[in-house]
Fold this sequence. Notes:
Layout: E1 2-5, E2 14-17, E3 27-36, H1 41-45, E4 62-69, E5 81-84, H2 95-99, E6 122-126, E7 130-132, H3 139-157, E8 166-170, H4 174-185, E9 189-194, H5 200-205, E10 210-213, H6 219-225, E11 229-234, H7 239-243, E12 249-257, H8 269-274, E13 278-281, H9 287-300, E14 306-310, H10 314-323, E15 329-333
Parallel strand pairs: 8-9, 8-11, 9-10, 11-12, 12-13, 14-15
Antiparallel strand pairs: 1-2, 3-4, 3-6, 3-15, 4-5, 5-7
Helix pairs in contact: 3-4, 3-9
NADP nicotinamide-adenine-dinucleotide phosphate (NAP) is lined by residues 38-40, 88, 147-148, 151, 171-176, 194-195, 199, 235-238, 241, 258-260, 282-284, 321, 324.
Amino acid sequence: MRSVQVSEPKGPLEVVERDIPEPGAAQVRIKVQACGICHSDSLMKEGLFPGIQYPRVPGHEIAGVIDTVGKDVTEWKTGHRVAVGWHGGHCGHCESCRRGDFVTCSYAQIPGFTYDGGYAEYMIAPTEALASIPDELSATEAAPLMCAGITTYNALRNSGARVGDVVAILGIGGLGHLGIQFAAKMGFKTVAIARGKDKEELVKKLGARYYIDSKSQNPVEELVKLGGAKIILGTVPSGKAMSAVLGGLAINGKLIMIGASDEPLEVSPIFFLSGRRSVAGWPAGTSIDSQDTLSFSVLSGVRPMNEIFPLEQATEAYDLMMSGKARFRAVLTTGH
Ligand SMILES: NC(=O)c1ccc[n+]([C@@H]2O[C@H](COP(=O)([O-])OP(=O)(O)OC[C@H]3O[C@@H](n4cnc5c(N)ncnc54)[C@H](OP(=O)(O)O)[C@@H]3O)[C@@H](O)[C@H]2O)c1
Ligand SMILES: [Zn+2]
């Protein structure tokens, strides 16, 4: 089969021929149809994620069809349309978690990191990681919902914001463009914050009520004019960019960090204590949360806006994502 792998930290995306893998007893083999390219794939490519064994096939926004099942698998059958995502976080109570070794937590089974992912014609997945794709969604529509979708949907639905609250989405890429749609469909007064004017029109079409250009406007002042944000969903891969908007939080406001960055946040304790403000992080979710994300997307009409590339053009697609020029998710297809 054709697959795309990274052979060593900081290595290129190489198109290679590999044997089609065989599933273990409690696993399935998926014939991959589509796989989104998430900014988090850069953590694996650049060697920034602990414990990865190379060569590794990236990709954790996967949609396809079950091709064959392991001998102990009863609920899932060949031909089922399934999706797999970042099976996120860690349980906190297994042996690995007690050692502080979160990467080997059995709950955190992450395609493209702890096992080979979806930049390939076929892949193996454990049944716990599977979500069923509704008929209304194509493979290319379902794939980005498995990480960009679930992460923003799940963070927002658990955020404590109520209908009508001001919710700001900071950073409009793969996650942000879905975050805007989910926030708008959940009934929040949705604000998009991005750098420059070029995304404004598209973002308003996706449901943002307000647009703040952080290059020409001061996001803090603009949020304060709206009464402050109950939630700021930080999807930027930059702690600095998240720090810069904290002053726009309302009383009881919360910054939810979903963008990955090792830059520290700069927080004023007085600003936080005086307004009961908070910061929190959010990892993607479980396969049940994935299933909910797919169902809500069907119910509400949320769809990713994609740029599609054949598997062989993984490098071009990845570079487009990293440049911030993708509108808004680059997705690989295998032709299956
Ligand atoms: N928590 C989780 O479970 C989870 C899940 C998936 C992804 N992530 C992380 O979430 C982040 C976003 O992923 P993505 O796939 O949406 O990435 P993406 O498609 O590359 O979009 C990121 C957007 O952030 C903005 N941005 C980038 N660098 C910035 C900087 N230095 N300062 C300010 N804004 C900047 C850009 O938008 P503008 O130019 O419009 O500002 C860019 O389009 C990544 O860090 C990724 O690793 C976390
Ligand atoms: Zn991701």
